[in-house]
Amino acid sequence: MSLKGFKRGKRSYESIEKFNKQVFLLNKLVNELKAEELLKSRQISGLQSEISGIELQMDQLRQFYARYVVAVYKGLVKDKWLYILNSGSFDEALRRYRYLKALSDKGESVIADLKSSVEKLESAKISLQFEKNEKEKIIALKEGEEISLKESIEEQKDLLADIGKNKDALKKELEAKKQSEKKIGSLIDQLIAKEELAKKNKTKKKPTPKKPEPKPKTKPEPKPGKKTDIPTKTEDKTPVLEDDEEFIGGSPVEDYEEQVVKGKSFSSLKGNLMKPVGSAKIFRPFGENKNEELKTVTVNYGIDFKVESAQSVKCVDGIISAIEWLPGYGSVVIITHTEGYRTVYGHLGSISVREGNKVAAGSVIGTVGKSLEGYIFHFEIWKGKQNLNPGGWF
Predict the structure, then answer these.
(1) How many other CB atoms are there within 10 angstroms of residue 185's CB atom?
(2) What is the DSSP string of 100-141?
(3) Fewer CB within 10 A of the end CB, N or C, for the chain?
(4) What residue segments make up the domains of the chain, in order of their start?
(5) Neighbour count for residue 300 (Cβ, 10 Å)
(6) Contact (Cβ atoms closer than 8 angstroms) between residue 336 and residue 319
(7) What is the second-level CATH architecture of the domain 3-161?
């Protein structure tokens, strides 16, 4: 192996990592923009519904006042003037005239107000549509950049394969993974710390329950002339979140048990856990792994699966707690489940979720990315701060 070839291989690996990180950042940005675009679409839809409702109300009012005008000014002209002229005095006649005119004017005023509301809503709708169109342009541009970056990555990988420098690149990747494993543990620690702090703050905010007043032994008779109190409707016991309450990934961490899944714990899935990728073969099992070619022994804190293409990656019920890019593992997603369990998904080529998203069993969170060894997917299970062997869960 020449020094020139070694340096060339090293540069190619570093370029791949650089491009991979750029793809991750672009992918994350595109997901954020798509979420904003979806919000704008919903707002536009809401405004359109409001406009349609007001327009319907205007039509109904127009029909009502049209019938009124026909009845008064065509069919009942004599009655109208007789009603005014038969007044006992001039003042009374004037009052009657003003009453009939006000009734007609009121309809015109209401319709004018409704028309003004429609104009304001239409203006807001145009503004939102403009913002939505701009977001669509940016999304198209960023998706184009993402495709170009992926093509550059493939070129670099082909170059590595052509010059046969995979061994040197793999050594760098293994070293990067060692550092990233520490980062994954650190991320888990941070999520747990924030969760515990949120629970602590929640407990502090809870008001001290008042002592119930002693109930009288006998029911007092109602006093004469007074009505007995009617029992009020039972108060809504739904907890109200304060503005400064702690959140992880946009969700109140102390409510994970309620939000994630009701009636089914994560631990009950052991032995029947759905594989994140279908028809995948275990490439590297949990624990120590010896690489005969590199003559190294590494510790795998999860399981590496190998697939033939960029397959979809699926998850079980949970909440997206963190989305990060880590050297050696690329795009990584951490999902929080019930009972303090978390799952880690690494080597993702693309991500289709955002932090704070609630995901149901079978939801697609992304696709398998291509590494130096092919399409490899990394999966971990954690219980609190302890990583577990996923092998017995499937």
Answers:
(1) 14
(2) HHHHHHHHHHHHHHHHHHHHHHHHHHHHHHHHHHHHHHHHHH
(3) N
(4) 3-161, 177-201+266-393
(5) 18
(6) yes
(7) Orthogonal Bundle (1.10)
Confidence of residue 124 (pLDDT cuts 50, 70, 90): confident
> What single-letter amino acid sits at 253?
V
Mean pLDDT of 188-207: 83
The encoded tokens of residue 63 equal 């029909």
Task: Name the H helices within 3-89.
Answer: 3-70, 77-85
Higher pLDDT, 164 or 213: 213
The residue count for the chain: 394
In sequence order, the β-bridge partners of residue 288 are 299
Residue appearing with tokens 């549509």: 129
Q: Kindly report, residue by residue over 250-262, the tens digit of the pLDDT.
A: 344 444 444 444 5
Phi-psi region of 348 (alpha: psi -120 to 50; beta: other; left: phi over 0): beta
DSSP code of 355? T
d(CA 276, CA 313) in angstroms, rounded, equals 5
Identity of the residue numbered 170: L
Extract the tokens encoding 179.
Answer: 């550092």
Tokens of 392: 């017995």
Fold (CATH) for 177-201+266-393: Glucose Permease (Domain IIA) (2.70.70)
Cross-strand partners of 303: 379
The pTM is what? 0.59
Largest Cα separation within the chain, whole Å, is 119
Q: Which of 356, 371, 325, 278 is nearest to 27 (CA)?
A: 325
Contact 77, 85 (CB under 8 A): no
Query: What are 176's two structure tokens?
Result: 């990067």
Task: Report the candidate in 336, 367, 350 with the shortest Cα–Cα distance to residue 30.
Answer: 350
Do 3-161 and 177-201+266-393 share a fold?
no
Parallel/antiparallel/unpaired status of strands 374-383 and 303-307: antiparallel
Residue where the block lists tokens 């008779």 = 221
Beta strands, E only, 250-390: 281-284, 287-291, 296-300, 303-307, 312-314, 318-326, 330-336, 341-351, 358-359, 364-368, 370-371, 374-383, 386-388
